[in-house]
Amino acid sequence: MKKQPLLEPFDLNGLPLQNRIVMAPMTRSRAANKDKAPTEDLHVPYYTQRATAGLIITEGSQVSEQAVGYINTPGIHSQAQVEGWKKVTQSVHDAGGKIFIQLWHVGRMSHPDFHDGELPVAPSAINPHAKSYTPDGFKDTVTPKAMTLEEIKITVNDFKQAAKNAVDAGFDGVEIHSSNGYLFHQFFNGTSNHREDEYGGSIENRARFFFEVLDAIKQVIPQERIGARFNPSLHNIFGMTMDEDTIPTFDYIIKRLSDEYDLAYIHLSEPFNDVSDVEFAEPHIAKRYRPMYKGTLMINSGFDQDSGNKVIEDGDADLVAFAKLYISNPDLVGRFRENVATAQWDTDTFYTPGPEGYITYEAKTRELLPDGE
Asked: Is 273 left (phi over 0), alpha (psi -120 to 50) or beta?
């Protein structure tokens, strides 16, 4: 049988991974409790079932109440949430796994329903004209409040405190969710950031907030345990559109990360939709950024066993993150190893409460059977 690069061990800047398969962060909306905390009956088995991944990255976890933008998402800003995550990390570690938490602020993609009627915050007061998933279902987004300089400083500290909480909860590291149209991405993009102060205008200014957060997080967790996620060619999703500065902005950020930092990894997404006719888009993200970035490069979006092996074999990435395949295949590593067909996921249960479609998918390979039999 041909050797599979995905199954080779990997040194993640000093953290040994048993393979190069990563469970991608995915919103699953199962923290249906007043504390918005992970639970022992759902989150613990969900992540533990998937602990044979080289690395698990949790669902996005809000760094403050202001950061919330979806129902039933677990945070990392309260003691109850820290205690809930402790049970998850302990169980994953007991199963031999490694786990990072994704730190999240949705910015303008939130809704007043989450904030006692107050407006969500963003770099600028620009409505994304999208949908927010509220306790009463999907609602139209509103025009957010432009963040003051003081609010930006508070948010930087929120991320720092969340990273400290993650350490206390036993995580192996953190990933900054600077992607997919959320708060950091809103600062990066000229269509969502019309600021005229030090956080707007030039590429360097629009990247400033991200680097301030990264430098703050470095104070409480080694940079070798920090990852950052980016989606350079996101277009026509969550109100984000590309312009002539979009790709140069990500070039600047990723080159600077390569030259000045020693992160655990950068986590990049190939385009979520067809951008072949989009004037300013880059259709081949891994191929563009592999030569620019000297550290560990993780890639995601639409990969399967064959394409995942190929992107590593071609030298365009070091790790591959799988999302939907990990929903329905808790033993994804085993299925790749034994060449067992993968199960199809049920989109109707992606975000519903309870165990169905969350911890009810069955393993079909030896790795998750009792005693490894």
From this structure: beta
